[in-house]
Amino acid sequence: MSPTPALLHSLFHRFKGNISKVSGTKPLHPTRCAHTISQDNNSVLSLACNQRYLFSGSQSSNIHVWHLQDFSLVTTLQGHRGSVLALTVSKDQRWLFSSSGDGTVRVWDTEKLVCTHLIQSCHDVGDIFSMVYIDSSNTLYFGNQNTSIQWYDFSDPQSQGKAGEVPVIPMNPRSSTYQKSKFFESPSYEDLVEEVDRFPGEENVIKCVIREKNVCSNAHNGYVYCLLHAVDIPNVDGQVIFSSSGDGDVKIWSVQESGLQLLNVLSGDIDKGVLSMALSEDGYLFCGVQGGDVQIWDLETNQMIRSLMAHSDDVLAVALKGPHLVSASADGTIKIWSEEFEFVECMDDHSGIILSMICSPEYLITGSSDHTIKFWDMPSPANIYEPFRRNSVMTDVPSSDTLLYVLDKWISTRTISGNHKYKEECRRGARFLKNVLQQLGATSRMIPGAPGRNPLVYGRFSARRSSNVGVKKIPTVLVYGHYDVIYAQNDDNQWLTDPFKLTGRDGYLYGRGTSDNKGPVLSSIFAVYELLKEGLLDVNVIFLVEGEEESGSVGFVDAVEQHKASITMQIQSILI
Hints:
With about 575 residues, the protein is mostly beta strands. The chain has 2 domains: about 30-165 and about 200-375, 7 Propeller (Methylamine Dehydrogenase, Chain H), CATH 2.130.10; about 400-575, Zn peptidases (Aminopeptidase), CATH 3.40.630. It contains 8 helices and 38 strands. β21 and β22 form a beta hairpin. The chain is globular. The model is unreliable at about 1-30, about 170-195 and about 380-395 (pLDDT under 50). Keywords: Hydrolase, Metal-binding, Protease, Repeat, WD repeat. GO terms for molecular function: metal ion binding; peptidase activity.
């Protein structure tokens, strides 16, 4: 009996080697520009789309609405008094949010194409560079020129147009004098209303103000250029927001009812402000920075694992399209990178700075200072695996069949330690093992190794609960192993079979790591899984698998010492 497709799809989507067998590092066909539209002699500063429309924000303060079916201009949304710097669409695609250099945020009904709300901060925030909307809490977050992150909760009574609910707030966070926001104050309020009502329908727009409690002042030491929302990132459950700034740092915030709680800081170079971000399903954070680099962070270990010298000028946008990373720059080029972070191709059809970039199901879409929007038809090699689900459940299939399938995939990953050429593949091999452990019911994570060295993989299977034995009395067994292998050269074809392809011959399995040490590690893991599945696991079992054994176990002792509180607690036996 073979493993079911659902099980295999869930287990192995995050193994990145599968696509390279189909396409390698070269696309099936070169990316081509399928269509170009012009935007009123104005730079295209921001882009967003739903299934029906493309929305483009301009330097002239207008938002153009384009029909995605025939690329025709549907209408122009007016109301902002400054450049439209950011656009985002709600998950249900009903609402468009826009932020501007005029220091305001507007909410637009995407069906009626009218403005419903106008939101202003309680402070002078300057330009509003970035936004994210969290549908589950109906809250909009935005990053500002004054280094703050602020948010507006649409459950606030203001959202219903109740003028009496205008908050009493200070005009300056350092001021002790409290007063009504100048946004609603006479005569400034009357002047604003006169300005707002110059467009048809503006009299129906609900005016709102950010409350003082919804301000995170000095979130960074520089402009907050980009915000990114995610759920259940590695080692962190729940809603999180990433913020990036001109100070070179990326901050990770937990979204709480009481506000934002800082979880971690990915410290960068103060001379390389982070201008754009994108997050992959497997926990890589890509950051476009000033000067032209793309930084790659592994959120399993919160380490910068690579910095691509991608462009000759600032990287203003990054995105993920299928298996590829796409970067766009002020140097006027768009570059595509493989899942191994190798350069694939470059498009230079724009004649100006690439200011904005998004992905629709059909196209990669870019906006430029050359006043055009381009729709790119990118190659999309078939991926036979469905998206990985963090909480997917193993189905009842023979473990022996699944074990062989997992071993086949793991053997094909060239986890050769001590060779910089295979550093990324070693990390993918570690991540693959971590995901297998997780799918089989273990608590798993990656532990940073020595600088420049491969991470360790930790997995823990917990014993079944018994009424006769207290939790503290359950013994714990630690199983040691390693996932790295020795280099195997087959250029002269002296091997009977490909060393990195699992091959069965005469009742034996052949392949690099089959006996040392991937095969034994997986056999032990699946044996424990069988006990767990049958309810017979009476001990806790910890797997500690390193990636530098073939290179002298560099950094192993230090890593264990740093994490021994969680690794070695109450261990009775160690199996090597």
